[in-house]
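Work Package 4 report. The design task specified in the project plan requires that, given a folded chain encoded as structure tokens, an amino acid be chosen for each position. We show below one input record used in the internal validation round.
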């Protein structure tokens, strides 16, 4: 039994050493990619979350309350700072209400991606999730009553 454990430990060591050797080889072969990856990691310590679903509060009995967000850590040129941004992947129909960025507090980029408009940098994912929940609840009220928010 002890001999088997010795062989298993030796195999783990060989695999680990091979992996480290391969990574060193790749780093020496493509130093510009390694440097770019390291620079990206320094600039982007947070990354992004992937899709998250929130069901908004609705005092008017609407059944479609589903919002989906993807949270990303980005540099915002308007705010001149890094911030969390809540990209809107899905929201209910506005049911004929104006859908402009001012009425709905959404920004959009050249690709048509919308995100929740907020006037100051948000440095915590938890805070950005709270902001997006508040935004979704406000949009639900806007859909039902036309009441502007913000």
């Amino acid at each position: 039994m002890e001999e088997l454990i010795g062989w298993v430990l030796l195999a783990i060591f060989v695999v680990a050493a091979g992996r480290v050797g391969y990574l060193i080889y790749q780093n020496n072969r493509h130093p510009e990619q390694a440097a770019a990856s390291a620079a990206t990691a320094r600039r982007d310590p947070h990354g992004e979350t992937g899709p998250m679903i929130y069901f908004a509060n609705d005092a008017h009995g609407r059944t479609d309350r589903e919002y989906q967000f993807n949270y990303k850590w980005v540099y915002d040129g308007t705010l001149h700072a890094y911030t969390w941004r809540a990209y809107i992947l899905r929201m209910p129909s506005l049911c004929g209400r104006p859908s402009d960025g001012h009425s709905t507090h959404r920004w959009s980029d050249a690709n048509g991606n919308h995100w929740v408009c907020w006037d100051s940098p948000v440095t915590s994912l938890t805070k950005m999730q709270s902001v997006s929940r508040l935004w979704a609840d406000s949009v639900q009220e806007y859909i039902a009553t036309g009441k502007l928010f913000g």
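The longest strand covers residues 66-76. Validation will be extended to a larger panel in the next phase.
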